[in-house]
Amino acid sequence: MAAQQSSSSSFLSSCKDYYEMTKPNVVLLLLLTALVGMCLASETWISWHILLAGLTGIGFLSSAAAVVNHVVDRRIDSQMARTSNRPVPKGKVTPKKAIIFASVLTIVGYLILELWVNRLTAVLTLAGLLGYAVVYTMYLKRATPQNIVIGGLAGAIPPLLGWTAVTGEIHPHALLLVLIVFTWTPPHFWALAIHREKDYARAKVPMLPVTHGVEFTKTSILLYTILLCVVCLLPYLIGMTGIIYLLGSTLLNVGFLYYAWKLKFGSTEKTAMQTFKFSIIHLMVLFVVLLVDHYIHF
Ligand code: HEM
Ligand SMILES: CC(C)=CCC/C(C)=C/CC/C(C)=C/COP(=O)(O)OP(=O)(O)O
How large is the ipTM? Predict the structure, then answer.
């Protein structure tokens, strides 16, 4: 009885480790942006089977990319306080088992997209996986402080994946959604990188605060946030969205600008982390506002 109990609790804790490697919170936000891409692609309700198969396939391939990142980065992760407790550096999951898990997710996810959605979405999602797991993680992250600017393209692609899942075509409106996430990524990540600068320096990862200093990074965050405000206006200016989006995105952008300004000119120890946390709320609410605006269009 006791042996049975301990084997079931070790099975549960093993499931928890595999789940953790998929970066579930990141993948959930990626899926929200994909869902919004799907809904904005059509004037009518989208079919349930595209919605389910599309989100499952995109979710599986994004999760697979996150698992590969855990394996490739295990040395770096073991040297940073934020990541040293992850399942692979802790030895709770072997790299081999993690790669088998990532492979299963990749094959199943790809087949779902190829068989029940369309080939364009399957291929673009696979490109997103390779962009994050290979181009960003294996190369850019270790090579240049512009790593997250270029690598950010992989994380920005889900709205396009959602759009192509519904229409089978690449549309300029979908690319504009990608541009919003792409411009949002540098202030999102660099705020955290300032807070964790010592971690990155110790692990010898050339993140911007390590190579160019904290002040330069704060200026870059402010400039990208201003750029984000301009990019966020475009959907309204080209008639893609209505007044609800204009009001909602303006409020959110004022909030982001407030944090970016404070970080540069009146920062306390907490401001970088507050800016990072706000960035996540900003993107999440922005995409919900896009959705509301789409269905209640004045
Ligand atoms: C190259 C691009 C990106 C980089 C380098 C990056 C980096 C990071 C890092 C280092 C964390 C902290 C993770 C942790 O504490 O375990 C994080 C958290 C997060 N990121 Fe990003 N990110 C990127 C793109 C994105 C994108 C595109 C999204 C969603 C659309 C996103 C959503 C999130 C969320 C939701 C969290 C919070 C995770 C949690 O609390 O568990 N990130 N990001
Ligand atoms: C198919 C598709 C859309 C794939 C993209 C999927 C994906 C998981 C993108 C997220 C970007 C992200 C969290 C980067 C952080 O990596 P990091 O190594 O800098 O952060 P860490 O130190 O927390 O691991």
Answer: 0.96
